[in-house]
């Protein structure tokens, strides 16, 4: 219960900061990042929406909030992607790790997880991470076209930045897959073991 209150406090602070930057953008006429800023109001609630159907641990919601803060708010809204050269790659690498973990939890939720199908599970982790990375690039591309921005840095690098982001996310998912294989092959009851116990449908 205590962590849930902290999570709600962090969400409130993040939305307050995001609103401040949104107003600043509107008043200054900086329209190229408005869609990305507005998306924070939607994606921050995903864990709470999911909780209507499945058990979602508070500590995982905290991890999600922290990731949104770094990836969406600091990176896109504040603009650290363009001011700190390594920040973009760092966030995409972390996204590859987290989406790899999320892929396994999705298998848990839909009761498609087979502890013996290690190769399939690894393939699904990597494929899911690449799908999420691709969808994000689609979103950035659409946002740039609508608002005449350049979040993908096409004017600077062509497709170089987009490909770098996807490759770094891919490497993150590979790292997660290697750890998953290690945990399963060495019968270690660590991260994925506890996730399997924590993530489930509410009325399973």
Can you offer a commentary on this structure?
The protein is mainly α and 204 residues long. It folds into two domains: 1-81; 85-204, no CATH class. It is built from ten helices and no strands. The chain has helices spanning 2-28, 34-43, 46-50, 58-78, 80-83, 87-109, 118-147, 154-157, 160-185, 191-198. Helix 1 runs antiparallel to helix 2 (34-43). It starts with a helix and ends in a 6-residue tail after the last helix. The mean pLDDT is 85.
The major β-sheet equals: none
Query: What oligomeric state best describes the polypeptide chains here?
Result: single chain
The averaged pLDDT comes out at 85
Number of separate helices: 10
Helical content stands at over 70%
Shape, please? globular
What structural class do helix, strand and pairing data support?
A: mainly alpha
Radius of gyration: 18 Å
Overall number of structural domains: 2
- How far apart are the first and last residues' alpha carbons, in Å? 23 Å
Order of helices and strands: HHHHHHHHHH
Q: Count of DSSP E strands?
A: 0
Low-confidence stretches: none
Strand content: under 5%
């Amino acid at each position: 219960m205590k962590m849930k209150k902290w999570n709600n406090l962090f969400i409130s602070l993040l939305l307050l900061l995001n609103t401040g930057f949104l107003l600043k953008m509107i008043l200054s006429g900086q329209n190229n990042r408005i869609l990305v800023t507005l998306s924070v109001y939607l994606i921050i609630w995903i864990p709470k929406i999911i909780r209507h159907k499945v058990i979602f641990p508070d500590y995982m919601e905290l991890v999600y909030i922290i990731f949104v803060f770094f990836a969406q708010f600091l990176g896109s809204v504040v603009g650290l992607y363009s001011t700190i050269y390594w920040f973009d790659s760092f966030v995409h690498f972390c996204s590859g790790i987290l989406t790899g973990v999320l892929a396994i939890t999705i298998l848990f939720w839909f009761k498609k997880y087979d502890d013996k199908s290690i190769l399939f599970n690894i393939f699904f982790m990597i494929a899911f991470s690449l799908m999420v990375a691709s969808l994000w690039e689609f979103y950035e591309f659409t946002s740039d076209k609508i608002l005449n921005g350049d979040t993908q840095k096409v004017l600077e690098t062509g497709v170089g930045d987009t490909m770098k982001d996807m490759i770094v996310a891919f490497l993150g998912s590979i790292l997660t897959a290697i750890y998953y294989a290690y945990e399963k092959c060495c019968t270690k009851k660590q991260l994925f073991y506890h996730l399997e116990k924590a993530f489930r449908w509410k009325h399973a």
